[in-house]
């Protein structure tokens, strides 16, 4: 199998594992996310454990990956170089947070939930795509 096919297969496998993890953990249910954000009401700590698991996995994974001189399926590691905070980053983060808080979906769970599309999910997906186009035009 050639390198491009391997990269594509690895991308699909990673996406499948991510989607299954979201579904198994219940993060495709917007009520669970909104319950986590409702700290003054019926708070649901499940998301904190999912995020904690992601942090631990990332911490271990980065240490293992960076012991290598190059990625398995690529020529060089492509790491971000920009380190300063600017208006675009802060504005994008604020819009993401507002959308997440209003809908209970972020992009991963929204795409993983597309099989059971509802009006709130469709609205979130449409505004997400509009946001991508707006970011390209403004960037």
Automatic annotation (TrEMBL):
Record key words, sorted: Membrane, Transmembrane, Transmembrane helix
Superkingdom: Bacteria
Keyword Transmembrane included in the entry's annotation: yes
Entries under Pfam families matching the protein: DUF6691
Transmembrane segments: 47-66, 87-105, 111-135
Stated name of the protein: YeeE/YedE family protein
Organism: Vreelandella glaciei
């Amino acid at each position: 199998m050639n390198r491009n096919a391997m990269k594509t297969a690895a991308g699909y496998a990673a996406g499948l594992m991510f989607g299954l993890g979201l579904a198994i953990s219940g993060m495709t249910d917007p009520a669970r996310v909104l319950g986590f954000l409702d700290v003054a009401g019926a708070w649901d700590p499940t998301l904190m454990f999912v995020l904690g698991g992601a942090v631990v996995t990332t911490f271990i994974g980065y240490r293992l990956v960076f012991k290598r001189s190059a990625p398995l399926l690529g020529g060089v590691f492509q790491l971000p170089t920009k380190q300063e905070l600017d208006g675009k980053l802060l504005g994008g983060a604020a819009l993401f947070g507002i959308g997440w808080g209003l809908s209970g979906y972020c992009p991963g769970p929204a795409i993983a939930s597309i099989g059971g599309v509802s009006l709130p999910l469709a609205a979130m997906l449409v505004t997400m795509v509009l946001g991508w186009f707006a970011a390209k035009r403004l960037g």
